[in-house]
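Exercise 7.
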Amino acid sequence: MVPQSKSEAPRMSTRMQRRVAEMRTRIVDVAETLLLEGGAQAVTAEMVAQRADVSLQTVYNRVGGQQALLLAVAERALEQTREFMQTAYDGDGPVDERLRRVGETYIRLAFDWPQAFKIFANPPEDPESIEKIAALATEQHRQLTDLISEGVDTGELAAGLHPESAATALWGMLNGMLSVALRTDAMRPDTVTPESLVATASAIIETGLRTRSN
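Solution. The predicted structure, written as tokens, is:
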């Protein structure tokens, strides 16, 4: 047997690490698809192994059982959501412009990353997954509440708004509207396109937030 040179060992280790990471990504991809197709009960290690065409032991070695699979999917969705949304809050400008940017970014998240949006809006029925997603929801809610509070204080938004209630209402309305917009069945009428639904809902929300002149 020819001994490995010192320079070959790190390269082999890197290749192995890359293969392990690629296999984990593949398994989580399959788990995410199963979750969206059939809910949390569909995400079993056995079904993931079958769909990914790998051994059951590989699924357990790279990720774990059902709870670990659900958590891995949720963590991926959380990271995508956090990175996507933070860009909207980082900019400057009047409150109404920043609110519009936050809304547009969340809408873009739903259409560009529908899996992440669906998991964030409707977490899998797994306590640890729900806890982590709730933590991100709390973080997003606080940022939105602070922005609305700033607008009320500066007179840019209606004086009667309760910032925390308004933030909760906005989050709920956007989630409901986007859930319908993403549907491709009879729950969204054929005459209502996703674009027209989003535009109409956004106009109604903006009108309700603005100050009213006498």
